[in-house]
Design goal:
single chain; Trna Endonuclease, Chain: A, domain 1; globular; 5 strands; 5 helices
Length: about 170
Amino acid sequence: MLLWAGAATLTIRGSMKSKVGKRLEKSIMRAALTVLGLSEERGDFRLNVAADDEVARETDAEVRTPRGWLRMEVGMIGQGNTEVISDKVGRMDRNGVILMDFIPTRSTAYTTAAQNHVKLIQMRNNHPVEELRQHLHHLKVAVQDESITTDEVERRVLSMDAKHFGEGKA
């Protein structure tokens, strides 16, 4: 009985963590891409793209480029299982983007990502929005041309309507 109760608790906690994580990932992607001047309504990007014949798993976001859709993933693992990073890198196409909250100092994730031509961006202790802007600009995505400061990112995020951070489209 105790094992069943423990398993049920882990399932419920895992499910809740997954729901919260998905909402947070969606908010991060929508905010970052909107700050860079892209619009979900114009079709510049789309969120939570369902699995299909080409991609076996759901994708957190896709950005329209002159050559098609660029996949993007968010990883919120903290100091947890670093194999999650490798798993995400392995699922990405060339030039795909992975935003990770934390990448351990001794991790080989950057090397693995570079070998697979995947852009790995750490959100912590960094300027991830500018790093994302540079990557997308290089791929000819219609983001703003000028660098963006952390103060400007903060100003733009704070001026966004709260619905940008909810379930539906902004």
